Amino acid sequence: MCIKKLLTLTVALALLTSCGTGDKGELVGVKGKKWHPEKPYGMSLIPGGAFIMGKSDDDLAGVKDAPTKTVTVRAFYMDETEVTNSEYRQFVEWVRDSTIRTNLAEMADLEGKEPGNGDIGEFAYKDVKPEEEMTPYEKYMFENYEGEIRKLNTDIDLIFDTSEYPDELYAEVMDNMYLPLEESYNGQRTWDVKQFKFQYTTMDIQTAAKYRELSRSDVIEQEEIEVYPDTTVWIRDFAYSYNEPMHNDYFWHDAYSDYPVVGVTWKQAQAFCQWRTLNKNAYQKERGKQHVNRFRLPSEAEWEYAARGGLQGATFPWGGPYAINDRGCFMANFKPLRGDYAADQALYTVEADAFEPNDYNLYNMAGNVSEWVMSSYDPASYEYSSTVNPSVNDTENERKVVRGGSWKDVAYFLQVSSRDYEYADSARSYIGFRTVQDYMGTEVTKNASKRRR
């Protein structure tokens, strides 16, 4: 009897509580923040839709590798250009500066230095303060996680001018970031780029969905990637060829800032996507905004769909079937004729926004540099992949698909349906990448393009 009275009282209290919420007892849902789609900087919205993916029947060799099939992809944003040297340098410098700040904070911690004295202590961890000044949350986290989540002090600028180093401890930390003096030449001391490592965590959602008995920790993966591009690709890719100027200048010199980054492995491209997501969402969090979807490499189907620019059955992003226009001008940067690299007015790469974009405002989807995509290469993948948002990325398969052809390729590889591959840990002077981001919602399709936002 007492239990029944208690239940009745509980229900009554719940009903009285709901009366004060303004919902009049109706199912109105949880009210969140107002949200409006925001086009990411430098990206174009690719409306979802269906297309015929693969080679035409008259390409007897290619049709075995890429047989035609109708597939549908959801809407997504895509970089209008390949990721440039300047954009990738932003990533490299972020990793470099974070590494330096961590080393400075560790040294300050080791030597017991604190802010306020104008020395290395100015770069101490931000959470170094008396226990009585900590919030309950800070105290709990510091005691239970032993300082593993300590925050770097990014409020003070790093000092790179040796004449302005604040003390010898700062000088020691900075000295260790450079190659030894005996490894310097031409009077230039260079960074030890092997220390530029980006650490991040991912979740293998595909495995988690397939094996439901696994715990969350079983599908969490820790990655640590050296982020500096391999500039020696300009030498290694071409035996008996003088390409040292490209090796020396291409990545870091401002003359090439707007050119596509090369010498980046598939794994480094993945790391860049993780960093770009982290960097953007840190900004969103500071301003109380909702997070954005992660940046990632496109699937093979997404890449081909975007490259076609809405043209069904086209050979190239501009249509085709020729790689020159009606005025005899080449439509992309590739190896035309019988190896006359300069015939298209470019010997190596060109600016990322060179030549005309396709109808989705995407530049150089054919030529300039080939592009990493998320998919693993399997000659038979078109036979068994899904027809809706097809994606085949086998973690055990190190062969990753590259698309679009490059400055050193013949026109065949510029075709939107041509497939090629490279190993995930390989870097080349003719392979770069661009990123995509999922569109929030599904209503934007090519059949209803007027509803784009």
Automatic annotation (TrEMBL):
Matching SUPFAM superfamilies: C-type lectin-like (SSF56436)
Stretches assigned to the Sulfatase-modifying factor enzyme-like domain: 42-121, 207-436
Keywords: Lipoprotein
Leader sequence segment: none
GO molecular function annotation: formylglycine-generating oxidase activity
UniProt keyword Nuclease, yes or no: no
Source organism, top-level taxon: Bacteria
Gene3D superfamilies named among the record's database cross-references: paralog of FGE (formylglycine-generating enzyme)
InterPro entries membership: CTDL_fold, Glid_motil-assoc_lipo_GldK, Sulfatase_Mod_Factor_Kinase, SUMF_dom, SUMF_sf
Keyword presence, Lipoprotein: yes
PANTHER family, A to Z: FORMYLGLYCINE-GENERATING ENZYME, SULFATASE MODIFYING FACTOR 1, 2
Name by which UniProt lists this protein: Gliding motility lipoprotein GldK
Source organism per UniProt: Pontimicrobium aquaticum
Lineage start: Bacteria, Pseudomonadati, Bacteroidota, Flavobacteriia, Flavobacteriales
